[in-house]
Amino acid sequence: MNDLTCIIIGGGYAGLQAFKQIQATTRDVANGRRIRFVLIDKQPGHLRKSLPNPQLHSMTIC
C-alpha cells in the first residue's frame, strides 16, 4: 500500500500543535497505512519562546 501524506501549511504555533495532535492521535498509522508529514512554512526557521523552568532557578520576589 502507498503511504498517506499529511501536508500542514504554516509552521507557527498552530501548525506545530496540529502536527503534534495528528501524530499523537494516529501514531503515524491510519487504516494500516503509514503517514508521511510535510510541514510547509514561508520562514526558514522557527523560534519558540518559553519561560524558564522555575524549578531550575531560585526566584525571590521582593
TrEMBL record:
Its domain of life reads Bacteria
Task: Report what the protein is called.
Answer: FAD/NAD(P)-binding domain-containing protein
Q: What organism does the record attribute this protein to?
A: Bacillus gobiensis
